[in-house]
Amino acid sequence: MEFLQQLVNGVSLGSIYALIALGYTMVYGIVKLINFAHGDVFMVGAFIGFYSITILDLGFFPSLLISMVTCAILGVLIERIAYKPLRNATRIAALITAIGVSLLIEYGVIYVRGAQPEAYPGDLIPATSIDFLGVKVSSQSLMILGTSVVLMVLLQFIVHKTKIGKAMRAVSYDMDAARLMGINVNNTISATFAIGSALAGAAGVAFGMYYTKIEPLMGIIPGLKAFVAAVLGGIGIIPGAMVGGLLLGVIESLVSAAGFSLWRDGVAFVVLILILIFRPAGLFGKNVREKV
Amino acid sequence: MNMLKGAKGFWSSIVLAVVFGIVMQFLITGEIINFFYVNTLYFIGINIILAASLHLIIGITGQFSIGHAGFLAVGAYASAIITMKLELPFALGLVAGGVAAAIAGLIIGIPTLRLKGDYLAIATLGFGEIVRIVFLNIEYVGGASGMTVTQLTTWPWLFGSILLTLLVIRNFTNSTHGRACISVRENEIAADAMGINTTYYKVVAFAIGAFFAGVAGALYAHNFFIIQPTNFGFLKSFDILIFVVLGGLGSMSGAVLAAILLTIVSTFLQSYPELRMIIYSLVLIIMMLYRPQGIMGTRELTSFFKFGKSAKGGVNDGSKNTVA
């Protein structure tokens, strides 16, 4: 039963990682950029959610929606201001800019509101737990899981059934060919950033509910772990990010359960290095040979 | 003839540097400059070593490593164990710090250097974090509360280390091996096709860079009274990265200049840590948008003194900005 309980915890945590990882993987799939600022968009989402709950006195779903919309706008702004001018620059220049944006958001938030952590209101969802086969599942975990599943289904729908989704797939396949076919590449990339950032915002609110503590530097570690999740599943592949996120969450919970909770943060990176060494394209990816 | 001229410039710059070192030693022992400035000077020195060592990895070999604080941490802890736990002399600690970091560089370099660009960056970042978490969980070195270290770093040790670092890295860059490393930076696949053992050169550059980062770590540890795992997080890695990027990827004097400049700036902004980071990040973004090659590009300081002379085909590859 202990094992099952940890599995349930791992799945709730993993669904948060998966939500963030989706944003990473979409952005990487389309512009081949590790968006380091993604973890900070997640942090901003958590704070927007917090302020809408405490100051505007809204419920869970309106706060989630506000957070997602604000993060989508933030994501598009970041892309337009910092990344777009560098689209043809070297990979290192783009990566350094992403690091710069990440630091700017972190310390901008600290500058505006201070570095002190904030306690998320816990009474938003009635704290009941359901006994399922002897495993306790709290209503919060269910809510987080439900939100994540709905958003992921929605994302699959957008990517596979709508026009913008088709454009996104085309641009990620071959940007120049897509442009020749009359696709507005800039708008498509902005849409990708908007959707990815909105998911990160939702993950931020979910994280706040789950851990009940948020702070301006909280985006770094979950952001990196989500990146690990994206690499684990094969970066650029949407189902891969979901599976990678869930898998990472479960691995982490099991490591904690095995009594190595202090080493928990290290496990994700060990997983990363192992996957990079043995299967660099990820679990779902195919190896592509680079030519001159 | 040209070679002779180059050698003359080389020896005269060493003599100049040694004279500078001796003058500084007199100023410090004579207490002409006060404690605050001496401390800043030490910081600048340590940062110069760090910047130069990362320059070799990123600027010369083109391997985007962003876990340099990990090597700093390995060096710091290894040397602190030597001097504090085993009570051996500081000189041994300095060497042990470098060797331990170089070994760490080999361990991380051999498997991960097969990766390219972004993947390598993220793998080295992960390595830096793993190092931090390992030190956090080892009780022998004090865990989260850290390890107390006596102050043993003195100006002669620091200055000697800086001189040695710059000399080794300069000479390495100008050697056959250095040229091989530059060819890896310019185009790895083409270099491979030309018969260069790219993995070997990447690992060598990585190990040398790690060695000097470890030496810097030893000096860093013995300049404070306490070292803690939190000192060696991402932010430290990014600090070092910024020196190299701002100075110009591929220019050692650029990295050194940036290290001096930014250490002075951050000393003055010490009471406003948030503002310091905001300025840092803005500088980084604006620099990448408008001058992605950094202050110096791939040029060295010495090339500015060669106006009118035959600078073509000289010590470095001119003002090309081709860092991958």
3D structure, described in words:
The complex is a heterodimer of chains A (292) and B (324). Chain A has a single domain (2-118, 138-278), classed as Orthogonal Bundle (ABC transporter involved in vitamin B12 uptake, BtuC), CATH 1.10.3470. Chain A has helices at residues 2-31, 38-54, 60-83, 91-113, 139-161, 163-173, 175-180, 185-211, 220-233, 238-257, 264-278, and strands spanning 118-119, 129-132, 135-138, 213-214. In chain A, helix 2 runs antiparallel to helix 3 and helix 3 (60-83) packs across helix 8. In chain A, 72% of the residues lie in helices and 4% in strands. The radius of gyration of chain A is 19 Å and the shape is globular. In chain A, the strands form two sheets. Chain A has a two-stranded antiparallel ribbon with strand order 1-4. Chain A has a two-stranded antiparallel ribbon with strand order 2-3. Chain A starts with a helix and ends in a 14-residue tail after the last helix. By secondary structure, chain A is mainly alpha-helical. Chain A contains eleven helices and four strands. The mean pLDDT of chain A is 86. Chain B is mostly helical. In chain B, 69% of the residues lie in helices and 1% in strands. Chain B contains twelve helices and two strands, in the order H-H-H-H-H-E-H-H-H-H-E-H-H-H. Chain B has a two-stranded antiparallel sheet with strand order 1-2. In chain B, helix 2 (35-60) runs antiparallel to helix 9, helix 2 (35-60) runs antiparallel to helix 11 (252-268) and helix 4 runs antiparallel to helix 9 (198-221). Chain B is globular and about 55 Å long. Chain B starts with a helix and ends in a 34-residue tail after the last helix. In chain B, 48% of the residues are buried. The interface between A and B is large, with 46 and 46 residues.
